[in-house]
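Hey, can you fold this one?
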Amino acid sequence: MTLLSVLPWLILLVLAVGLEGVGLALGGRSTSVPTLSTVIDYALAWHPVRFVLFCGWLAVGGAPVVRMVHRRVLPHFPTGG
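Sure. Predicted structure:
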């Protein structure tokens, strides 16, 4: 694993934490200043949105596993003959 392979995830994490921090600094739990937490809570109130977010979470988590399986070089066993 290299820094370049995890850089997009680090950027996403920094942006999410920054957004949450700015939202909390500007208004905390105010309804006029949404934070990541309040937006997610509002979205999760509807079951169809919850299902879509769950499927997206599975896809994001499963993509590296699928990529790893496809990159894997299977051993070549000579056949008798």
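The chain has a mean pLDDT of 78. Let me know if you want another pass with a different chain boundary.
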